[in-house]
């Protein structure tokens, strides 16, 4: 059974991103943004981009691997992978899928990428413009339940009701991201700090769980991460970030229609998180730094709880700005500013940040990081999460 | 146009193209709440699907249920994400569970004042809201606090 694990077999050796923009502000086409991020990741790794022989993405990324491969002049495309469904819930799974291809020899150098220009295509935060709806949307949209904030709000309201979680928890999560963004020059919200009063006075997007600052941005940009085998990684110039474990999926009938998931008051990680820890061979208390995808701060709260960092009844005490702040907090969270304040790069920016933390190169570096966890988009299905480690954790 | 909770111009529901949920939408036009119950094992099921999730039978029949439920969760969108909602202001959506039908859940609007307190666990009654003037006429299922508001 020891062979049936990804642990230590693959490493992230190159990361890159385009300039991050507010939605509609990118001067470059979405496909160009993808190429920019991939080229920068290759440069960071110290390899020729033509060495890339595999692509992995998620959420129906529009930058097709065959077109990318043709544009880059790649001589032998070996792997073109797309994670089904779940939007940003698939980001860690895309890394995991790319790593699996490297581990079993389908490809030697896989780039995980995401390019998203919401200004050039449909914005995620708006309802679909269609005059009629069918399928699941027919039971939601006519009642004004259309956007992600509205579709997932019911889960969060129920969770907070069941466990008595206060909105202060959500404010701490939002403020941690904004605080970290102030020392990150890549961040769209760099130079735009958030204080408690501004948060408290911000308008409701969806009462009683999402104020304006609880919701992710809508951005234009691209990010990329290059994966190679552990053996190859040793010969490259960057300190490798090894994949120790990854898990994806969701529990019983998570995708049942009309909000009928069996385990409703959940971020969908109830069965995924235990599998992640089992495959990585570590415990929550071992994690040095945590990146947890913010579609909404409610999703972060539930996902962090379901990954075992605290019990749901302890959430009000655990989620404080001090506990979540780098470098000295109990669990430094979203140290780049994340989807809230760095860029909504559909979570891939958070994956890049975990690599920086393991290298020791973050703008909000946590001392001596050995284990970095990444939780992908919560409350959707399928979800995914992963753990990376430095060489000494192997 | 009939009186409706949300303004005209909201997306109009139509039955799925593969015929899965025609029975539901035809039922609401008659003022009947139709949901799925397995002919093999009796398991209640919602949303609609072609197979029973418990026994994997394809014999998923439709049964009328009483329009009574309990508020399981709720939310009140303030930020409009659709052109028809621009002038509406906040509105309340509820997730209602039906204890008499295996605790299946449905989404609708909670009728009444837009700023009313919403209590999880409160009893609600279904109210049929016809949209007779739509290109394909349809009827939504809304909810009122039991005892009226």
- State the separation between the terminal residues of chain A, measured CA to CA: 17 Å
**Helix and strand element order of chain A:** EEHEHEHEEHHHEEEHEHEHHHHHEE
Rough shape of chain A? globular
* Unreliable spans of chain B: none
CATH fold title of the largest domain in chain B: OB fold (Dihydrolipoamide Acetyltransferase, E2P)
What is the radius of gyration of chain B computed over CA atoms, rounded to a whole number of angstroms?
16 Å
Biggest interface, residues from each chain: A-B, 45 and 42 residues
* CATH architecture group name of chain A: 3-Layer(aba) Sandwich
Mean of pLDDT of chain B: 96
Span of the ends, CA to CA of chain B:
23 Å
SSE order of chain B in H/E notation? Answer: EHEEEEEEEE
**Domains of chain A, number:** 1
CATH domain class name of chain A:
Alpha Beta
CATH architecture of the largest domain in chain B: Beta Barrel
Low-pLDDT regions of chain A: none
Question: Assembly type of the shown chains?
Answer: heterodimer
> Residue-averaged pLDDT of chain A, rounded?
97
Bin the helical content of chain B.
under 10%
Taken as a percent bin, the fraction of beta residues of chain A is 15-25%
Number of helices of chain B: 1
Question: How would you describe this structure to a colleague?
Answer:
The complex is a heterodimer of chains A (about 400) and B (about 150). Chain A contains 13 helices and 13 strands. With about 400 residues, chain A is α+β, with helices and mostly antiparallel strands. Chain A has one domain: 3-Layer(aba) Sandwich (Peroxisomal Thiolase, Chain A, domain 1), CATH 3.40.47. In chain A, helix 5 packs across helix 9. In chain A, the strands form two sheets. In chain A, strands 1, 2, 3, 4, 5, 9, 10, 11, 12 and 13 form a ten-stranded mixed sheet that branches. In chain A, strands 7-8 form a two-stranded antiparallel ribbon. With about 150 residues, chain B is mainly beta. Chain B folds into two domains: about 50 residues, no CATH class; about 80 residues, Beta Barrel (OB fold (Dihydrolipoamide Acetyltransferase, E2P)). In chain B, about 5% of the residues lie in helices and about 35% in strands. Chain B is built from one helix and nine strands; from the N terminus they run βαββββββββ. Chain B has a five-stranded antiparallel sheet with strand order 7-6-5-8-9, with helices on one face. In chain B, a hairpin with a 5-residue loop joins strand 2 and strand 3. The longest helix of chain B has 9 residues. Chain B is globular and about 45 Å long. At the A-B interface, strand 6, helix 4 and strand 7 of A face strand 1, strand 5 and strand 7 of B. Strand 7 of chain A pairs antiparallel with strand 5 of chain B, so a sheet runs across the interface.
């Amino acid at each position: 059974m020891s062979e049936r694990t990804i642990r230590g077999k693959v490493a992230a050796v190159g990361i890159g991103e385009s300039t991050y923009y507010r939605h509609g502000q990118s001067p470059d086409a979405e496909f160009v943004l993808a190429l920019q991020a991939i080229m920068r990741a290759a440069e960071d790794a110290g390899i020729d981009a033509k060495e890339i022989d595999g692509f992995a993405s998620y959420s129906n990324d529009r930058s097709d691997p065959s077109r990318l491969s043709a544009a880059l002049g790649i001589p032998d495309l070996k792997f073109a992978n797309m994670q089904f469904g779940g939007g940003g819930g698939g980001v860690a799974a895309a890394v995991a899928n790319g790593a699996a291809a490297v581990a079993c020899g389908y490809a030697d150098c896989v780039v995980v990428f995401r390019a998203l220009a919401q200004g050039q295509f449909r914005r995620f935060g708006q309802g679909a413009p269609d005059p009629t709806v069918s399928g699941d949307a027919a039971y939601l949209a006519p009642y004004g339940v259309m956007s992600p904030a509205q579709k997932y709000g019911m889960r969060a309201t129920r969770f907070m009701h069941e466990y008595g979680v206060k909105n202060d928890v959500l404010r701490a999560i939002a403020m941690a991201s904004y605080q970290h963004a102030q020392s990150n020059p890549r961040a769209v919200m760099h130079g735009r700090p958030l204080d408690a009063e501004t948060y408290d006075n911000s308008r409701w997007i969806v009462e009683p769980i999402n104020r304006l600052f609880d919701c992710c941005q809508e951005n234009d940009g691209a990010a990329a991460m290059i994966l190679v085998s552990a053996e190859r990684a040793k010969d490259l110039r960057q300190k490798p970030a090894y994949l120790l474990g990854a898990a994806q999926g969701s529990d019983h009938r998570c995708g049942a229609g009309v909000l009928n998931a069996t385990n409703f008051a959940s971020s969908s990680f109830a069965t995924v998180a235990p599998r992640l820890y089992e495959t990585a061979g570590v415990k929550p208390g071992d994690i040095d730094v945590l990146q947890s995808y913010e579609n909404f701060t409610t999703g972060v709260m539930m996902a962090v709880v379901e990954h075992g960092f605290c019990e749901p009844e302890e959430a009000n005490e655990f989620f404080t700005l001090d506990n979540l702040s780098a470098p000295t907090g109990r669990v430094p969270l979203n140290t780049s500013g994340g989807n809230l304040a760095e860029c909504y790069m559909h979570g891939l920016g958070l994956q890049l940040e975990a690599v920086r933390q393991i290298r020791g190169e973050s703008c909000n570096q946590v001392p001596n990081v050995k284990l970095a966890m990444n939780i992908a988009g919560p409350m959707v299905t399928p979800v995914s999460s992963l753990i990376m480690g430095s060489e000494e954790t192997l | 146009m009939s009186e409706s909770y949300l303004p005209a111009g909201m997306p109009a529901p139509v039955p799925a193209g593969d015929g899965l949920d025609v029975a539901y939408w035809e039922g609401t036009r008659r003022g009947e709440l139709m949901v799925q119950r397995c002919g093999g094992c009796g398991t209640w099921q919602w949303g609609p699907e072609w197979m029973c999730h418990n026994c994997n039978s394809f014999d998923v029949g439709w049964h009328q249920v009483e329009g009574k439920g309990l508020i399981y969760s709720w939310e009140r969108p303030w930020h409009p994400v659709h052109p028809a909602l621009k002038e509406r202001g906040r509105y309340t959506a509820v997730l209602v569970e039906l204890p008499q039908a295996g605790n299946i859940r449905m989404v609708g609007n909670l009728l009444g004042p837009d700023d009313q307190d919403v209590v999880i666990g409160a009893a609600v009654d279904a109210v049929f809201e016809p949209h007779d003037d739509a290109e394909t006429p349809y009827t939504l299922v809304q909810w009122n606090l039991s005892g009226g508001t």
